[in-house]
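Tokens for chain A. Residues wanted.
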């Protein structure tokens, strides 16, 4: 998943508008964020840093590389993520697993078809 898709998913999970998200990053207008979300710009380091400062519950590994959960699982009560955020994490993980299962099923089907055609071999042998 590309970073612009992860950012869109984050904004959706935070249940805020793109403009509100941009304002939390210190942007007065949402143009830069819109361009990133549509793949016309790649987020710069300072933008990613602003996201992690504005939303400390966001997992940096997930944001940068798509690894792990969207939100950190913190043990500190003052910084703990909500049950709703945990549910969103679980929904996202289930979505990722379903995508992987679909991809593996497609690959399996292709391999079975290939194997079947190899077993039939050319006629006339």
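Reply:
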């Amino acid at each position: 998943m590309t970073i612009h898709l992860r950012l869109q998913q984050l904004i959706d999970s935070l249940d805020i508008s793109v403009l509100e998200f941009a304002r939390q990053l210190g942007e007065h207008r949402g143009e830069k964020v819109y361009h990133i979300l549509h793949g016309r710009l790649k987020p710069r380091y300072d933008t990613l840093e602003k996201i992690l400062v504005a939303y400390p519950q966001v997992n940096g590994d997930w944001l940068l590389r798509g690894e792990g959960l969207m939100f950190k699982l913190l043990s500190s009560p003052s910084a703990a993520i909500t049950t709703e955020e945990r549910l969103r994490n679980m929904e996202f993980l289930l979505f990722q697993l379903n995508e992987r299962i679909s991809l593996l099923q497609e690959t399996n089907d292709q391999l079975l078809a290939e194997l079947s055609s190899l077993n039939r071999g050319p006629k006339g042998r």
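The chain has a mean pLDDT of 86. DSSP finds six helices and no strands in the chain.
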